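Need a sequence for this fold. Nothing fancy.
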């Protein structure tokens, strides 16, 4: 199952995860508050999680109850 970026990324947005993703499935835009993972391309390699300074990246199964909406928010970025 894909990984999901959660709200801890907001305003940090340093892009460390982008540099380590082997399939280039993490993206953002200048006006977006955070980075997002494309669930259709993520291969669950776990590389991004280790470099995030604020532990914003989790498996979709590990989303905290108050952040379940981030599954939809991540996927939605790539469907615009
Ligand atoms: S788990 Fe791997 S493939 Fe998925 S977003 Fe992170 S680095 Fe990329
Ligand atoms: S490494 Fe963490 S804080 Fe930095 S852009 Fe990626 S998810 Fe956001």
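Here you go.
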């Amino acid at each position: 199952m894909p990984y999901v970026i959660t709200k801890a990324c907001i305003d940090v947005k340093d892009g460390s995860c982008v540099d380590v993703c082997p399939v280039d499935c993490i993206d953002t835009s200048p006006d977006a508050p955070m980075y997002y993972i494309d669930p259709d391309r993520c291969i669950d390699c776990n590389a991004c999680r280790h470099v995030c300074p604020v532990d914003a990246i989790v498996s979709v199964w590990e989303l905290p109850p108050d952040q379940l909406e981030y599954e939809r928010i991540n996927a939605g970025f790539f469907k615009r």
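For context: The domain at 3-77 is CATH 3.30.70.20 (Alpha-Beta Plaits).
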